[in-house]
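Extended Data, panel c. Modelled sequence:
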Amino acid sequence: MATDLFFLTLQRITAGDAPLLDVLTIANALNADGQASAAEQLYRVWLACNPGHPQAFVAYFNLSTLIGASDPEAAIAALEGAIASNAAFWPARINLGGALERKGDLEGAVAQWRTLSERLDQITGEQVGFKLMALKQIARVLIDHQQAAPAEAYLTLALDIDPKQRDALEQYVGLRLQQCHWPVLEARGNASREVLMEGVSPLSMAVYTDDPLLQLAGAARYVEAMTRDEVFSPTCDRRDAPIESGRRIRVGYVSSDLRDHAVGFLMAELFEVHDKAAFEVFAYYCGPPDPSGAVAERFKQSADHWADLNGLTDEAAALKIAADGVDILVDVNGHTRFARIGVFARRPAPIIVNWLGFPGTSGSPFHHYLIADDWIVPPEAELYYSEKVLRLPCYQPNDRKRIVAPQAPTRAEVGLPQEGFVFCCFNGAQKIGRFTFERWLEILRRTPGSALWLLANDDATNARLTDYAAQRGVEASRIVFAPKLANPFHLARYPLADLFLDTAPYGAHTTASDALWMGVPVLTLSGRGFASRVCGSLVRAAGLDGLICETPVALVERAVELAGDRAAITAYKAQLTSGRDRCTLFNMGLLAERLAALYLEMVDDHRRGALPRPDLANLDAYFKAGIEHDPDAAEMLALADYHGLYRERLARRHRTRPIPADRRLWTEAEIADADRMPASGATTPRLRLAAG
């Protein structure tokens, strides 16, 4: 039947009696019937018989879509034909850019999108939509190829048109942080600072401000935006599935980082020391395709089961996990790149856990537990988290099989002063905020002859930092940039530094463990939020409690003191070297044992029908209260009355939009006080700085 229809249509085309709409309909039917080559032939014959037809661009475009996967070069030719037929048919330029990018012709791809963005005016909604798509495609390609500054420029153009694009805002803020552009956010055009704050991703929010209530509320909004279209999937949903006794507990880890990545380096040994008699380990990889290298191979060899989720939709991936009968599904991505939040939203396991990959709360209705420790989340800080908090002795695993290059460089070889005190920080540039950098500059001014050793960024960012330093009385030559190296060689150069200075509010995680493993003491400032307290946890677990500071002023004073006390630095280094095999930080046997106990506790909760219910009450009100603060103007971790600040803002909102009580800060007593407040009694937030 389909063959007869094909030949009949060919006859009609050659006779000039086949309108394009008929051809499109029949070609779609043939393709759906598995006869793509026949559909392709119809398009080609119609185009050959109708040169110069005003609708030829439609046929070319449909042809390109049909053959794009099987014959990329022919698809490019078809898209070029569509553009030649109708230069204003913008979808063809969008797709041609994508096809050229996949071919490796990045310059050609960007040229197509740039042409589109330059030619489109902003009259109709459709045209605006195409222009925004082109601008964001250009920015994406530039970001993927480490061209931050031009990518930011294109995102700025997109945000000038529509400042409420979540995807563009997330990338824009990330680029500003990555390039140490201060202030990070400024009101621009029709976009207030508060509007821009609404688009900050959960990860960037942890970098931008030590405001755990805002981080919780922002994470909840992000989950809502990313999963609002999820539908109940009875074939995936296993929230009520029983966990039988008499067999191993099935634990699945979903992660994009089971490879040469900071998180992968931390976790590599964990799978090897897991109690395989009690637990069956499933590794679900969702990162860049075809992971290779020694770290990825270790994961593949040590897991009981390895599955690559690439190419699977969220529904298909969730079905895979559900079919495996996983009991505890551990989210090792959280709100980071390549995360598969849509998989977790389908609840393919009865117990869902947030651990390690994202330093903060998920803010989701489907994560039951957060694994931390008593330093990162002390009991009084549990109100900042939607999950139930369970604790390890130290939340972060470590790989004791790190490979370190045998030959260490000299200070002269890396450009450091031979005799001066060397402060270092190998955190990513996005963690270096203005307040952190100004503290470092004060330390340098007060320690003559010292140097600050940082991980190299792009040239523009390096210059931005050294120019900023020079304007504040610190010679550019005192800031030395270390080129990025493979991890074994990077580790080998660590001991050239005397003291690692941590960033705030998002501190060192893997980088701190690396420094401590290589015998370099780490000075850190612990704030309120998860990301700001991880480094303190690591330093404490390494036995160096005296290097945890509670205020910004204290950190500066302690750094200056240590720079003048070589004996103390020598003692710290000796303690790290001699205690490496005994300290909690590197005791993977202890971590595996306690992690197993936590998993059994979760299973017991499930069997008793006592799984925790995520607390998401009033988070929209907390978010509105939180974005009133400008993190570029005042450092939140330096404010003394943090809870008072929120209570005042909630009370002010309650006067116009009543807020029900919750289990955080907004209690029945707070409501009663707010209700008694006279209309003229609205208060101004108290922004007292913490004492030094």
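Residues 411-586 form a domain with the Rossmann fold fold (CATH 3.40.50.2000). This feature is highlighted in the accompanying rendering.
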